[in-house]
Amino acid sequence: MDGLRNALADVVGHRFVVTDADVLATRSTDQTGRYTGRACALVRPADTAEIAALLNVCRSRGVPVTVQGGRTGLVAGTVPEHDDVLLSTERLAAIGDVDLAAGRITVGAGVTLAQVHSAAAAAGLKFGVDIASRDTATIGGMVSTNAGGLHTVRYGNMAEQVLGLEVVLPDGTTVRRSPKVLSDNSGYNLPALWVGSEGTLGVVTSVDLKLRKIPTYRVTSLTGFDTLQDVVEAGRVLRALDGVDALELLDGRGLELAARHLNAAVPTGRPWYLLAEVSAAHDPLEDLAELLERIGPPQTPAVAVDAPGSTRLWAARECFAEVVGLFGPPLKFDAALPLDSLATFTEDATAVIASRAPEAIPILFGHVAEGNIHLNVLNCPNADTVYRSVLELVRDHGGNVSSEHGVGSLKRNYLDLALSAQDIATMWAIKRALDPSDYLNRAVMFPDALRH
């Protein structure tokens, strides 16, 4: 261990190598507090060259490496399992100038999403992806997991925002793919390979991001419904609007908990709610009102046309980040379902949870336009008896067991519920081609059966 510590310190300096047991224990536990691992050192390199050197040190010594950004993931994707070296990207914090003409900015992998939003706004532009953990989630981690979030219905996931990447491969080679033209069909689309690879194919060090114009007008609405199918149908109608930014499903049970336990000023009384936001160069209020009238919800929607009002309505969505932790670490499911199956899946999943963990409280929210839902099971001590059963229900209803959080280590042994054996074998071949010793993010994505 002393030899490894000294070798790492030779690259980054002694102050940026930490072996304190308490620090490592904290950094080896995921955000939910449910999953924990073990690490031998935490290293915080300053730049791409140091990352390349660190990877070479670890690879030559046979030491596994787990890459960490903001550690806001929800599938234990940064939890080490093999006394790993933790490679933190937090010092890769450079923020380039906004290129107004091209609508782009280059940032380090350790820059937070909130910092990107701030830099874009200062230049009169916006970044299209937003998630609840914006203050701590890093761009490198979001690229690695192909994060989605609140505005995917309009702007798409991170893959749609990435214009170029710099990546250090497992062998220490640095690859920079940053075309300056809009049309580039010269060879493989390498950035697409690394986006969503969850750190298994290299360490993302900097990213060229696409920025967009800020729409002049914005209207937000929050509407209660009596059934989930009604929310789905309303989402289908509203999605036809030009400029729809968000269509968020909210579980009335979650709002009741927020009002009761968090004293949150949120609506209650309906089983389901739909938060919709539309923005455009023209005022979309009349168009939104016309569609809401056509939908005919059981109560008059709340509508906001200014920033303070919008913030009040969005509080109903934002409160779920706290609600899901009210009874300790929740059991989390991130899945995508065909819209025609969403309501029946929810009924079946609720029944399965009730039969295996009667005291548990299922809470559902998510991006209803894409069928991308987050099922959180609160107060669930019998996690093992529930987890696979619900994932099998996702598969049986034609869904995908990992929609936007990635596979991580939590779902690696359930990958066959989403992908064919041929799919998994092809992915494994790519992994072994770039990382033949399988030392980089070893606990992530691939089933144990492939590694033994």
TrEMBL record:
GO MF annotation: an example: oxidoreductase activity
Entry keyword annotation includes Flavoprotein: yes
BP terms from Gene Ontology: respiratory electron transport chain
InterPro entries xrefs: FAD-bd_oxidored_4_C, FAD-bd_PCMH, FAD-bd_PCMH-like_sf, FAD-bd_PCMH_sub1, FAD-bd_PCMH_sub2, FAD-linked_Oxase-like_C, FAD-oxidored/transferase_4, Oxid_FAD_bind_N
Entry cofactors: FAD
Keywords recorded for this protein, A-Z: FAD, Flavoprotein, Oxidoreductase
Record family assignment: Belongs to the FAD-binding oxidoreductase/transferase type 4 family.
Protein name, UniProt field: Putative FAD-linked oxidase
Species per Swiss-Prot/TrEMBL record: Rhodococcus erythropolis (strain PR4 / NBRC 100887)
